[in-house]
Write a structure and sequence with these properties.
single chain, 108 residues
């Protein structure tokens, strides 16, 4: 025999897909943010190495330096986009408001 879900059970079931999507986004961000930060740090190390090379920078060195700076800038932009997305999820209002405590127990 099927039972009728309580208002809080119905609300929780309706919210489950939203929470699943948020959790997936957060898991992706939790992996991507450190990877991007690591990529930026690696590129910054490369830039510093090139800047500290003795003598004049050759045209090939300059091309490498320019490519590293461009990649670092792109990585940082991606990182900032993820931070913005994370902040939006963190401050987002829930999909719906749960029922009042009395209503959750079938009381009015």
């Amino acid at each position: 025999m099927a039972t009728t879900p309580t208002p809080i059970q119905a609300w929780a079931a309706a919210e489950a897909p939203v929470q699943t999507a948020i959790n997936a986004a957060l898991a992706t961000m939790a992996t991507t943010i450190p990877a991007l930060a690591s990529g930026v740090a690696a590129l910054d190390t490369l830039i510093t190495t090139l800047q500290n090379s003795p003598g004049t920078i050759t045209p090939a060195d300059q091309a490498t330096l320019d490519a590293a700076v461009a990649q670092s800038t792109a990585n940082l932009s991606q990182f900032n986009s993820l931070v913005t997305a994370l902040a939006a999820i963190n401050t987002a209002a829930p999909g719906s408001v749960p029922p009042a405590p009395g209503a959750a127990h079938g009381r009015k």
